[in-house]
Structure prediction request, 279 residues.
Amino acid sequence: MQGMCAFGLGAWPLASPAQPATAGQPLQLGVLPISSTRVLLRNYTPVQAYLERTLGQPVELVTAPDFRTFHRGTLQGSYDLVVTATHLGRAAQIDAGWLPLGRYTALHRTLLIGRRAGPPARLEELRGQTLAGPDTLTLAAMEAFDWLQGRGLRGGVDYTYLETPTPSSAAQALINGQSLLAVSSPQGMKNTPEALREQIMVFANLPELPSLLWLAHPRLAARQNVLKSALLGLNTPAAGVVEFFEATGYQGVREVKSAELAVTDRYLPRLREVLKAAR
Prediction:
């Protein structure tokens, strides 16, 4: 493998490149920290190797300590390529001119979960209670807030949001009585210990959304077609990334349609509010 691995919290922030990376110079591939650095590195190493072979230049894998830091780095141009959540990618496209290359085939699913022993009979019971879940910048949290607001329940007004660091801690908040419902996903449920999983149930399945996007910084506009072709090549057996798709469940890569990007536009005002409040 040619490219050194820059994965780790110390690898951020990176100096914003003034010029496009050319052959022989490393491409900075930023990956949204949806898992631990160790897991991201293990999963994306085959993808890194494939891109180096295909593009003929080193590729450095880079992440950040949290969603806010990563998205700030995206907007500042700290990466050449990013793998990020659909709503964050859409914001990067609109606010900083990032170029969509493709998306993973698998769709994102947000779940509302409750205690198996005594779940709420009606959603209205959440009023005056607590909802547990991930970072408010995540797609799951954004979709849950929007879905609940459409049903007359406003976050911070009609219910309290308890941010938890992991899906397991959100489930634990349910069991401990700290929350009435929690935000999760099928992957989050899978990563929750069986002893906890047996005590929770799916209360509601929210509409499916496009999941993670690949985008290129606008300084790479002249190479957009080459990069897109390389990305779609991940679907071929010769790419040698079968273990990547097996480990992540992403199922493959395909082109992303404009309508799929626009579906998260309704979350962008909230996203910008959250980012502004975090400054």
